[in-house]
Design brief:
Helix content is 80%, strand content 0%. By secondary structure, the chain is mainly alpha-helical. The termini are far apart.
Length: 71
């Protein structure tokens, strides 16, 4: 059977290991959150650009409704 000091030492080692894992996982979450924020900004910019292209093409009309230039 282990002594009290040995058990405490083992528990302290496990706690230290868990704290390290917690810090690593926390950093991963922070990095992912930052990346998601960046991706959301890029997506919003792309959506705005797509809306501008759509608005521009709507104002030009449908090319199938236009008469060919030789008429």
């Amino acid at each position: 059977m282990k002594s009290t000091n040995e058990r405490i030492t083992e528990l302290e080692m496990q706690l230290t290991h868990l704290q390290r894992q917690y810090d690593v996982l926390n950093q991963v979450l922070i990095d992912q959150s930052n990346e998601m924020t960046s991706l959301r900004k890029r997506l919003n910019k792309q959506e705005q650009m797509l809306d501008e292209v759509k608005r521009g093409s709507e104002s030009m009309g449908d090319p199938l409704d236009e008469k060919p230039p030789h008429y």
